[in-house]
Amino acid sequence: MHKTQHIGIVACSAEGAALCYRTICVEAAAVLGPHAHPEVSLHSLSLADYVDCLNRGDLPGVADLMLASAHKLAAAGADFLICPDNTIHQAFHLVEPRSPRPWLHIAEVVAQAAVQAGYQRLGITGTRWLVDSEVYPGKLAAVGVQAVRPSVAEREEIGRIIMDELVCGIFKPESVARFQAVFSRLQAEGCDAVVLGCTEIPLIMSDANSPLPTLDSTRLLARAALARAVGVSRAGT
Questions:
Q1: Taken in order 66, 169, 212, 133, is the CA torsion positive or negative?
Q2: Would you give per-residue pLDDT tens digits along the chain (237 residues)?
Q3: Pairwise CA distance, residues 149 & 163, whole Å
């Protein structure tokens, strides 16, 4: 197998990190051959530690947790890093200057995909911490794409579903229906697609059951990481 770069995954919640890891490994076979994928290392601190910092609005604390994982992954040989968790990208500006390895930014990856698809107005869904933040509005505005947030009540309900159900591997039909209702309202507001801005949302929502086209942040990040890992080897062959 051609030499590829070593991907380091800074995990936060288990379900999202597992989906990202699986996507890298499964989709790599189409590029590298049967059963082949780049070297991948994953490190995870306790989700409870992240939630505690988020509840306190402690972004420096979030950054310290991310950097702790980053240093362990660098020591394991990772060439670059990804984090399949949108919410903690609020602390990215505190992480990047101190990181031992370069990163891909999940919202930048999604913004690039939106531009390539020709979308102009995106609904943003995710935890209440993420939707209240400027993680997506800032990155989308930089490429000329508008961001639309759900209502406060919708943010609270979506956030509850994510934290009480999805991160625990619980998938309820009534929660799917609730997401569909929110997506329909975003469509009525003129959105032409919706960002699945929590890495667990793709476990229950996709183009197959959404009234709007979806931008799956988890798989888009995994594919960007795979392209980077494989692209380096191609450039050197």
A1: negative
A2: 568 999 999 999 999 999 999 999 999 999 999 999 999 999 999 999 999 999 999 999 999 999 999 999 999 999 999 999 999 999 999 999 999 999 999 999 999 999 999 999 999 999 999 999 999 999 999 999 999 999 999 999 999 999 999 989 999 999 999 999 999 999 999 999 999 999 899 999 999 999 999 999 999 999 999 999 998 543 333
A3: 19
Domain 7-105+219-236 carries which CATH code?
3.40.50.1860
| Side chain identity, residue 203 | L
Q: What are phi and psi of 205, to 5 degrees?
A: -125, 140
What's this model's pTM, rounded to 2 decimal places? 0.92
Q: Do 7-105+219-236 and 106-217 agree at the fold level?
A: yes
Closest CA to 119 of 92, 97, 148, 146: 146
- Cross-strand pairs, 122: 147, 193
Residue boundaries of the structural domains of the chain? 7-105+219-236, 106-217
Cα-Cα-Cα-Cα torsion 172, 177, 183, 188, nearest 10 degrees, comes to -170
Closest CA to 36 of 235, 236, 232, 229: 229
Which numeric CATH code is attached to 106-217?
A: 3.40.50.1860
